[in-house]
């Protein structure tokens, strides 16, 4: 019997149910309206998967079935792959649940929710140094929607400008780093804008290098998207340098190219961790900024924000005017009806934490990330690619350098400003020395073995032109405490050492990891199969979790 | 035996800590309750979670009561068990399928159930339906238009023809997201306009608008104005002929945002879904008659031919490739879980029971509305007895010194939100009142509403017209002021949309 033979569990169960004994049971007469566990009454009742069942079950039973099904999910706490926030205080949970039945699009019916939305926009504007009384913005479902709105506004402005000048609007393009999140590519393809991906280099910190990017800019460039916080290594792309180069470009050619800052992760990090850092609306060329409330804004999944410098940045034809019960509303969104709860959660956080609270949390995240990065480097097995654990050179950035000198050789361990700037992310790979010594150990096995212990730490390739480099990445979110760092580090080292010490384990791993990926494909059932048929090979893109 | 305790001197016990340092047992006794809460700038300092939650909670008391909101189709009631499931899963990110495989499984089950409910052709592998969950019907419609546009572009390019000026053919009574989809994706809008007495697209007239640049025809299953269903089957037959004549390959997308979960249960024989040969895609809002809370919609395509490859993205999560076609990425998972809960909990029988009850309540309400003032006051504008959505739309037929908007305002003072609005473009002189009958609008609540409606009519009958005019003006001024107070943008004057050109008011959905 072949070991690799695939047995379909559904057909197996169907065969098992065909036992003559079961045929005697009248399935029509099942009475499961009281018990939570349907199985207590009938083991042969199948949970409906593909068709709405003819008759329903009691609310208790429905709850229990789905509740148990959800237990097969991973634990959000141990998910180090994602930037998305997974913990909020009890009070916030309660508040969000109370408002679960409110539709955010129903503006006239829920004026208090609207007022809260306005306050959030205002606070973000203040945080990002937006011109007072001019900035305008909206909540979105996430940064993807925000980026599409930002990109679409840039495209329309460019089209209008070109039409005015009597020039062609045929071939717009947009410039961003190859490290961009998939949403940026999606925008380009869906809105028919040529994506000019700037390859990343090691010297350019694995993200957009403005000196390279400027070579891609021309009269058809609708804008440059600068990412505050690369999802690969957490580096901040230098917004101010990009702006300077574009200023020079405008002086030379008269072409004005705006910047959109994708602050999906960094928008809630930089203002608190590095208050003096210039990246936002205090740079005149920045026309719009987006962020994810559900990342370091510390709200559950389902919330993004986008702000524009002023109304002129939003072409009028994109704004929809809605009249309803005598009041007039203006909207610019892709989604219409949507939950209000995440927006309420955001306002709760802003009130609850204040500037100080957010600052304390991000400082703690960065401190834990530094701890992990330093420990990994000290182990000698790994090279760390992110650099938030690297102290700033003494001469850099006047004040900080001086402050550091005053403290002494060791920088204040709690102050993020004494180190290189970035997101609380640790990206690492096997050290070159290690690879030479243990060539048979594959880095991707670390991911699989950690997964067996419950940790989700993804292993993936860097973007072009460094796509042959693989990295492991750990995102240090609020819920990743010092204790968890200690645990994951211990497991990481133990796994690495077990692979080093025993080539046989490595052989086994090679076989095992093949099986792992098979299982991953199987768990989605038939829809994945249908989808696989349409898997376009040319659109294959590595999306970083965000 | 007892311990000896020292009683401290008064000097030691009388130390006065600052007021700020008092640990207050009540929210409202705290120092913070006596201060203004931050509105437009973040505070420097933190605030205890209990206080922050209470202040936000209090702020939200100013919102309307969702249960009395008769304007909206969006679900406002779910069972406690469903709510508990949702709160348990708030911390999960829907797109993180590798981490949360059960979520992926649940979405795929919902898509399967919906595709079968809509009679998608599933007889062999090549004709399997494809679907996706969205935030709502807006996203679903934008995705469908995007797919249709790419498909049209590809066909035109293959035939060596121009890809400029694509258009969509639709009834001007469409929901605003169709205008949005057209304008944002740079597709021309080609409208069929209604006329007094004819609010659903005339199949012949609308199909005659189709030309070689048409990427899609939109059919509405459940007009937000009158609740009526357009004759999709007839449109399909005519489109078939039209395609033959023009040598085109145009398909119909059915916007079943509201009707998708009503028609299959109330009128199972009505041909509107994939049984109709020319229907290529359908969207439905799970958060309307799908009975889940706001934040879930569905889009289903007939087969893979309708999803051109270049708009699909393969994202690679930890070794398992996922094909994705969405505008949003990270999003909440709880609404999809809520949807699956309802499918499981209710079954077809449960949905049928609820929808039938709604229809009965709607019929009862319609009867009562018409009966006011011995049948001389109102005239119905909607189809009854399951011919359309369970909603009641009516207008004043008597000659009165007040209009529908005055009635809406008066009902509002009793807490009921009943929208008054003008009809779709080219019939905008007609004003309507509309009540959407949702699951939580029971027969009993309906009776209370009828009583209040009668009171409103009596009251307005006795009110001199000067006062009514004054109230209308005051309401308008107040709305302006409110917008100003909450720092909303009010000075855009766009001139492109149907609203700007025809004064179309958009019914909330």
TrEMBL record, chain A:
This entry carries the following GO cellular component terms, namely: cytosol
Tell me which domain of life the UniProt entry assigns to the organism this sequence originates from.
Eukaryota
Q: Which GO terms describe its biological process?
A: L-glutamate catabolic process
- Modified residue annotations for N6-(pyridoxal phosphate)lysine: 295
Under Pfam families, the record lists: Pyridoxal_deC (PF00282)
Catalytically driven reaction(s): L-glutamate + H(+) = 4-aminobutanoate + CO2
Cofactors, names only = pyridoxal 5'-phosphate
What the entry lists under InterPro entries is as follows:
Glutamate_decarboxylase, PyrdxlP-dep_de-COase, PyrdxlP-dep_Trfase, PyrdxlP-dep_Trfase_major
What are the protein's UniProt keywords? Decarboxylase, Lyase, Pyridoxal phosphate
- Molecular function GO labels: glutamate decarboxylase activity; pyridoxal phosphate binding
Q: Which E.C. number(s) belong to this protein?
A: 4.1.1.15
Task: Note the PANTHER family from the entry.
Answer: GLUTAMATE DECARBOXYLASE
> Can you tell me which family this protein belongs to?
Belongs to the group II decarboxylase family.
The protein, known as: Glutamate decarboxylase
Q: Which organism is it from?
A: Calocera viscosa (strain TUFC12733)
TrEMBL record, chain B:
Q: Which InterPro entries does this entry report, sorted A to Z?
A: Glutamate_decarboxylase, PyrdxlP-dep_de-COase, PyrdxlP-dep_Trfase, PyrdxlP-dep_Trfase_major
| Keywords annotated in UniProt | Decarboxylase, Lyase, Pyridoxal phosphate
- Start and end residues of each stretch annotated as Disordered: 478-509
> What name has this protein been given in UniProt?
Glutamate decarboxylase
The answer to whether keyword Transmembrane applies is no
Q: Which cofactor does it need?
A: pyridoxal 5'-phosphate
Q: Which GO terms describe its molecular function?
A: glutamate decarboxylase activity; pyridoxal phosphate binding
Going by the record, the broad EC class of this enzyme is lyase
Q: What is its EC number?
A: 4.1.1.15
Basic residues bias spans: 482-509
One GO location term (cellular component) = cytosol
Using the record's annotations, give every residue carrying the modification N6-(pyridoxal phosphate)lysine.
Answer: 288
Q: What Pfam families does the record tag this protein with?
A: Pyridoxal_deC
Q: Which family would the database say this protein is a member of? A: Belongs to the group II decarboxylase family.
């Amino acid at each position: 019997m072949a070991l690799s033979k695939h047995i379909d569990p559904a057909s197996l169960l169907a065969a098992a149910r065909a036992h003559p004994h079961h045929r005697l049971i009248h399935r029509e007469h099942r009475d499961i309206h009281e018990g939570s566990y349907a199985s207590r009454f009938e083991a042969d009742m199948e949970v409906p998967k593909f068709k709405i069942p003819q008759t329903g079950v009691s609310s208790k039973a429905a709850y229990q079935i789905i509740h148990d099904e959800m237990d097969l999910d991973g634990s959000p706490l141990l998910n180090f792959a994602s930037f998305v926030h997974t913990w909020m205080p009890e009070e916030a949970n309660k508040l969000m649940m109370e408002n679960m039945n409110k539709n955010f699009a129903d503006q006239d019916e829920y004026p208090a929710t609207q007022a809260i939305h306005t306050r959030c926009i205002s606070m973000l504007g203040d945080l990002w140094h937006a011109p007072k009384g001019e900035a305008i913005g909206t909540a979105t479902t996430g940064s993807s929607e925000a980026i599409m709105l930002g990109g679409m506004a840039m495209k329309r402005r460019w089209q209008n400008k070109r039409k005015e000048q009597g020039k062609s609007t045929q071939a717009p393009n947009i410039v961003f780093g190859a490290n961009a999140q998939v949403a940026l590519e999606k925008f380009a393809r869906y809105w028919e804008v040529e994506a000019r991906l700037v390859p990343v280099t090691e010297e350019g910190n694995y993200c957009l290098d403005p000196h390279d990017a400027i070579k891609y800019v021309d009269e058809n460039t609708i804008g440059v998207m600068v990412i505050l916080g690369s999802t690969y290594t957490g580096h901040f792309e230098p917004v101010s340098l990009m702006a300077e180069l574009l200023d020079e470009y405008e002086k030379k050619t008269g072409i004005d190219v705006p910047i959109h800052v994708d602050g999906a992760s960094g928008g809630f990090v930089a203002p608190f961790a590095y208050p003096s850092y210039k990246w936002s609306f205090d740079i005149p060329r920045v026309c719009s900024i987006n962020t994810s409330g559900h990342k370091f804004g510390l709200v559950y999944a389902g919330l993004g924000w986008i702000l524009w410098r002023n109304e002129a940045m939003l072409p009028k034809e994109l704004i929809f005017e809605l009249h309803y019960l005598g009041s007039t509303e203006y909207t610019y969104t892709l989604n219409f009806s949507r939950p209000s709860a995440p927006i309420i959660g955001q306002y709760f956080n802003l009130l609850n934490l204040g500037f100080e609270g957010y600052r304390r949390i991000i400082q703690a995240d960065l401190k834990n990330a530094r701890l992990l990065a330093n420990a990994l480097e000290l182990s000698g097995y790994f090279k760390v690619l992110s650099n938030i654990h690297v102290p700033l050179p003494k001469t850099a950035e006047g004040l900080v350098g001086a402050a550091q000198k005053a403290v002494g050789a060791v920088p204040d361990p709690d102050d993020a400003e004494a180190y290189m700037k970035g997101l609380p992310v640790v990206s690492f790979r096997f050290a070159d020395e290690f690879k030479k010594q243990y060539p048979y150990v594959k880095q991707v096995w670390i991911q699989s073995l950690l997964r067996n212990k419950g940790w989700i730490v993804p292993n993936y390739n860097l973007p072009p032109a460094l796509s042959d480099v693989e990295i492991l990445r750990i995102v240090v979110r609020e819920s990743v405490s010092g204790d968890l760092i200690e645990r994951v580090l211990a497991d990481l080292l133990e796994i690495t050492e077990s692979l080093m010490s025993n080539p046989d384990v490595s052989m086994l791993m090679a076989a095992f990891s093949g099986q792992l990926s098979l299982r991953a494909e199987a768990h989605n059932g038939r829809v994945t199969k249908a989808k696989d048929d349409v898997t376009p090979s040319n659109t294959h893109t590595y999306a970083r979790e965000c | 035996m007892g311990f000896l305790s020292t009683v401290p001197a008064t000097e030691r016990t009388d130390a006065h800590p600052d007021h700020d340092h008092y640990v207050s047992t009540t929210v409202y006794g705290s120092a913070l309750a006596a201060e203004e809460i931050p509105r437009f700038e973040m505070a420097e300092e933190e605030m205890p979670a209990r206080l922050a939650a209470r202040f936000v909670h209090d702020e939200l008391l100013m919102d309307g009561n969702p249960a009395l909101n008769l304007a909206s189709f969006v679900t406002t009631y779910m069972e406690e068990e469903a709510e508990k499931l949702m709160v348990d899963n708030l911390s999960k990110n829907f797109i993180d399928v590798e981490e949360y495989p059960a979520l992926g499984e649940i979405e795929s089950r919902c898509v399967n159930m919906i595709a079968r409910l809509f009679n998608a052709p599933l007889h062999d592998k090549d004709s399997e339906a494809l679907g996706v969950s969205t935030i709502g019907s807006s996203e679903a419609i934008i995705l469908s238009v995007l797919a249709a546009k790419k498909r049209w572009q590809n066909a035109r390019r293959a035939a060596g023809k121009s890809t400029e000026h694509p258009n969509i053919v639709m009834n001007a009574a469409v929901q605003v997201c169709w205008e949005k989809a057209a304008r944002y994706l740079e597709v021309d809008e080609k409208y069929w306009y209604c006329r007094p007495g004819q609010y659903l697209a005339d199949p012949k007239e609308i199909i005659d608008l189709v030309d070689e640049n048409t990427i899609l025809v939109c059919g509405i299953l459940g007009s937000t104005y009158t609740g009526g269903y357009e004759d999709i089957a007839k449109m399909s037959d005519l489109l078939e002929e039209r395609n033959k004549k023009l040598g085109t390959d145009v398909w119909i997308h059915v916007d079943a945002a509201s009707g998708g979960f009503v028609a299959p249960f109330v009128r199972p024989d009505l041909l509107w879904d994939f049984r109709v040969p020319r229907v290529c895609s359908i969207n439905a809002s799970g958060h309307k008659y799908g009975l889940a809370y706001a934040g879930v919609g569905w889009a289903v395509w007939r087969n893979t031919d309708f999803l051109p490859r270049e708009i699909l993205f393969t994202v690679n999560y930890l070794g398992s490739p996922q094909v994705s076609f969405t505008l949003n990425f990270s999003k909440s998972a709880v609404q999809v879980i809520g949807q699956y809960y309802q499918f499981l909990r209710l079954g077809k029988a449960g949905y049928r029971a609820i929808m039938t009850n709604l229809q009965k309540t709607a019929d009862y309400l319609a009867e009562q509305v018409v009966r006011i003032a011995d049948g001389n006051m109102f005239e119905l504008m909607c189809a009854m007895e399951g011919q359309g959505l369970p909603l009641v739309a009516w207008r004043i037929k008597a000659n009165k010194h007040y209009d529908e908007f005055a009635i809406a305002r008066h009902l509002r003072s009793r807490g009921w939100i009943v929208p008054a609005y003008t009809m779709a473009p080219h019939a905008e002189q007609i004003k309507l009142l509309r009540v959407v009958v949702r699951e939580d609008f029971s027969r009993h609540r309906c009776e209370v509403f009828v009583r209040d409606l009668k009171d409103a009519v009596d009251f307005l009958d006795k009110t001199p017209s000067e006062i009514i005019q004054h109230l209308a003006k005051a309401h308008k001024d107040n709305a302006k002021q409110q917008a100003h107070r909450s720092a909303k943008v009010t000075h855009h004057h766009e001139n492109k949309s149907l609203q700007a050109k025809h004064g179309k008011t958009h019914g909330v959905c």
